[in-house]
Amino acid sequence: xxxxxxxxxxxxxxxxxxxxxxxxxxxxxxxxxxxxxxxxxxxxxxxxxxxxxxxxxxxxxxxxxxxxxxxxxxxxxxxxxxxxxxxxxxxxxxxxxxxxxxxxxxxxxxxxxxxxxxxxxxxxxxxxxxxxxxxxxxxxxxxxxxxxxxxxxxxxxxxxxxxxxxxxxxxxxxxxxxxxxxxxxxxxxxxxxxxxxxxxxxxxxxxxxxxxxxxxxxxxxxxxxxxxxxxxxxxxxxxxxxxxxxxxxxxxxxxxxxxxxxxxxxxxxxxxxxxxxxxxxxxxxxxxxxxxxxxx
Length: 296
What we know:
Distance between the termini: 70 Å
Number of strands: 18
Radius of gyration: 27 Å
Structural class: alpha+beta
Shape: elongated
Largest sheet: 5 strands, antiparallel
Strand order of the largest sheet: 1-3-4-5-6
Helix content: 10-25%
Strand content: 25-35%
């Protein structure tokens, strides 16, 4: 006995995916096939352990597509078998290290380069249905086997019912997570949270690239005045300020990224420079020497 699945049911099944697939030779083939599937009726065969048959699909669609839905304590796993091994294959399975029943891990997924973000909007770390998101990074050996997250993201003010992770997006090292039922501006007013690399001292340089800890901007140097062609972080824009004589000077500039997150004051301490640098700021020679050390 067969029962047809509606398009909404098919899309709901797709929303439960938390597996990583690689398509060859191009994703366009997969997208074309997916469109074909959406326009064709799928039948659910009773008593076949959740096996969906796709008899009657057009030759342009996948020739033989079966879906196996396996419920376990972590959520839903969806695998695809194709009539052609060249079309699509599963490389890895992503699972949260603290997964639990009904977390809805895999409800939304985003990919950028070697980073995958997977949401679990009904996770209850911060209350019932508060939600969370998990960040996975491609291992050095590639996507393979069952992998756990590199980081778990939570709202700084998360609470019950926010559904943090209802939507996720990632671009480079920036992740955005939606919480449509956040109530900061009224019931279900919603919000979105932006996450970037950890920056413990707030100097704009990620910890993994920061040579100097506890950088303070603006800094305490110079103690007298900023000298001609001397450099210091007088304000908080991350660019070293200087006092260039009119029509003179080499015209160089430095940013805090180029100094590895170090201020002039910290450079003076590291290089053992004299009091003149403390009074008037770091010389061009000191800045170039330090930049060369942290950027070999």
